[in-house]
Amino acid sequence: MNQLSVTRQLFDDVMVPNYAPAAIIPVRGEGSRLWDQDGRDYIDFAGGIAVTGLGHAHPRLVAALNEQAKKLWHVSNVLTNEPALNLARRLCELTFAERVFFANSGAEANEAALKLARKYSADYFGSDKREIIAFTPSFHGRTLFTVTVGGQPKYTEGFEPLPQGITHVPFNDLAAFAAAISERTCAVILEPVLGESGVISATPEFLQGVRELCDQHRALLIFDEVQCGNGRSGHLYAYMAYGVTPDILTTAKGLGGGFPISAMLTTAAIARSLSVGSHGTTYGGNPLGCAVAGAVLDIISDPELLAGVRHKHAVFMAGLHRINQRFGVFRELRGKGLLLGCELTEAWHGRSRDFIKAALDQRLLVLVAGPDVIRLAPSLIIPDDVIEDGLQRFEQAIAHLVSQTTQ
């Protein structure tokens, strides 16, 4: 099959229809720009859904991948490998963690975290302490376990019966959580910054209160930093800015900069419950992914880069406020670092995807975070002039959408 025959129509002909990709097909990326099959350039404010944190084809990541590809691709977990051990050691040095488990996606990392929590509870407290508390709205992955924990009916309908022993309470509602937690609770899982569910940050009081109540009830606290971690918030991991340390942390997306890899971080005492043979994954900790992630971690752990993320947050927010002064389409602009949410006013509710399409027409990639929120998750090192160029395209997209609506 030659390249000219690869069109968007081919997707409909050969792929399972669980996605609805845009009409364009990117073929090349560099930094914060992509080019499609016709050579048109696009500014990337989406970052592959908060994944390409260092942009496309970063030279150090390309070098790490190429160097490792010449040496060793895969050995499975019958053997260990140097890139995995080096990455795990570095993650332990940079975080609260003492032990690391590698997988391939955020859902797998969360699945491992939830299984570990139940296994730890069974080991030390018995079979009655199995309840997991999660928050609405939230998103923790697409396995049957994690999608049930996420608690959104639109993702679970038709897949019943669902795993049991999961309770949901409203996010940022400490009183509701205090009423729900009990001695039956083995674990609590939350995103410090909700990603898919509207880019809503936990309040410091909420996180601190959750930590204290988990301690009182001997429940493990799991932070899902699949999206808000890896420098995205302006800190290496979001928990660091809050001063609240979890028992287990999950990370993926930006960890590999576009190469599939995830990790679950925890303490040595908790990790003991995943004894030999109790959990596993064929590709987890493969040398290619770990070599790339090691290069990513070296770059994003630089304090100057993290300070740059916080600076770029201010640049984005100033530009978005300027746009909103002109059009008045946003009720609230929020987020941390370079995970930003633009909540639409009531008059525009339900139309976030219209903004995505309008932006694409102006050769700009942005995301949704539900029907009422536009989400931006660009590269952590996107140059300021590219930010301004992208914001101009966003402004043109909104101008066109507003003019169409008022006609």
TrEMBL record:
One of its GO terms (biological process) is L-arginine biosynthetic process. Keywords: Amino-acid biosynthesis, Aminotransferase, Arginine biosynthesis, Cytoplasm, Pyridoxal phosphate, Transferase. InterPro entries: Ac/SucOrn_transaminase_bac, AcOrn/SuccOrn_fam, Aminotrans_3, Aminotrans_3_PPA_site, Class-III_PLP-dep_AT, PyrdxlP-dep_Trfase, PyrdxlP-dep_Trfase_major, PyrdxlP-dep_Trfase_small. It comes from the Bacteria. It catalyses: N(2)-acetyl-L-ornithine + 2-oxoglutarate = N-acetyl-L-glutamate 5-semialdehyde + L-glutamate. Binds 1 pyridoxal phosphate per subunit. It is found in: Cytoplasm. The modification N6-(pyridoxal phosphate)lysine is found at residue 253. Its cofactor is pyridoxal 5'-phosphate. N(2)-acetyl-L-ornithine binds at residues 142, 281. GO terms for cellular component: cytoplasm. It is an enzyme of class 2 (transferase). Pyridoxal 5'-phosphate binds at residues 106-107, 139, 224-227, 282. Pathway: Amino-acid biosynthesis; L-arginine biosynthesis; N(2)-acetyl-L-ornithine from L-glutamate: step 4/4. Its main location: cytoplasm. Transmembrane segments: none annotated. Pfam families: Aminotran_3. PROSITE patterns: AA_TRANSFER_CLASS_3. Homodimer. Belongs to the class-III pyridoxal-phosphate-dependent aminotransferase family. ArgD subfamily. This is Acetylornithine aminotransferase. It comes from Candidatus Contendobacter odensis Run_B_J11. The gene is argD.
